[in-house]
Every structure is written in structure tokens, then in C-alpha cells.
Amino acid sequence: MPKVVHVWDMLVRLIHWGLVAGFVALAFLTRGGGAWHVAIGYLVAGLVALRLVWGIVGPGPARLRHLLPQPAAVIAQVQDMATGRSHRDLGHSALGGLMGINLFLTLAGLAVTGHVLARPAAVGDWVKDLHGAFDSWAILSVLAHVLGVVLESRRLGVNLARSMVTGDKTLP
Questions:
Q1: Which residues are bridge partners to 169 per DSSP?
Q2: Which residues are CB-neighbours of 18 under 8 A, at least 6 positions away?
Q3: What pTM was estimated for this model as a whole?
Q4: Do 114 and 138 meet the contact criterion of CB atoms below 8 Å apart?
Q5: Tell me, what DSSP letter sits at residue 69?
């Protein structure tokens, strides 16, 4: 019989979907650094900062320590994926935690380089190039994240995307 467990609190879910909306707007709707791009960039930076604070003071699975897997857990998850075994985590899986860290660091890099580019002082092309590199890495990372969520949802029989909407994870 399936077991329903509440995992993601409302703030984690609002920040997650706010980051999704902000990233889509930044990557596909406001490219080029105009006023809207800068404003949405600061909003995304604020959401990342809020999520980091919530990762320190928030409840259970929201805590940042749950994003930092042990190397053995990463190896075990890769082995499970390769052999067809399944292990269901309440919060992030080991690879999911690594992706979360990757996305936070990438968005932070985009925010810092974007802030420098938004300043009136002249900046070198290297800042634009670095911002572009973070942008490209973010797009690849988001695609890998979505693909990972779809594949792991199918493999484990757990709708991971729905759990980030409802906050509840249904475990078989």
C-alpha cells in the first residue's frame, strides 16, 4: 500500500517554482541585459539567498545538510541505477543533492557576474564571457535536472515533480 509523506514545505516549493519562472524569463524572454533582465536577475538572486537562509533555519529536508551526500551514497545510487535496484529517499537523492548544489552555485555565479555587468563602470569582456559560460552551464544543468527527475520518477515509481507541487511524496 502506498505511503504518503509530507516532504517539502511551502517556502521550499515557492522558491523552487519562483526560480523556475525566473530562470525561464531570464534565459528565454529577457536575454540581452535590459532593465527587465536585470530586475528579474536580482529577484532570482534574492530567491537563492532566501533558500540558503531557509537551508540553515528551515525544517528537515529543507536543510542544506540534506543536499550534501556522502560519496558512498552517490556511488550506491549510480550502482542502483545501473543494476535496476531502487532506493527511495524522502528528500533529495544523492545525485539530486549534487544537482541542487550545482544549480545554487551556478545561479550564484550568474547573479554575481550579472551584478558586475549591470554596474555603470566599464568591465572587461571576461566578465561577459564568464556570465555567458554560467548561462550555458545553467541551461545544460536545468535540462539534466528535468531529465533526471523524469527518469528517476519512472524508475522509482514516484512522481517527483508532483511532490514539488504538493509537498507530499507518495512512496510505493
A1: 5
A2: 43, 47
A3: 0.89
A4: no
A5: -
Return d(Cα 65, Cα 70) in angstroms, integer: 11
Torsion of CA 105, 106, 109, 115, to 10 degrees: -120
Q: Is the predicted pLDDT of residue 92 greater than 80, yes or no?
A: yes
Q: How confident is the model at residue 121 (pLDDT cuts 50, 70, 90)?
A: confident
Task: Report the mean per-residue pLDDT for the chain.
Answer: 91
**67 closest CA partner among 12, 17, 137:** 12
C-alpha cell read off for 140: 545544460
Residue for cell digits 554596474?
119
The whole-angstrom distance between residue 70's C-alpha and the CA centroid of its chain comes to 19
- Residue 75 is predicted with a pLDDT of 93
What radius of gyration, in Å, describes the C-alpha atoms of the chain?
A: 17
The per-residue pLDDT for range 26-63, each reduced to its tens digit, is 988 887 778 899 999 999 999 999 999 999 999 988 99
In three-state secondary structure terms, 68 is: coil
Let me know how long the chain is.
172
The 3-state DSSP class for residue 62 equals helix
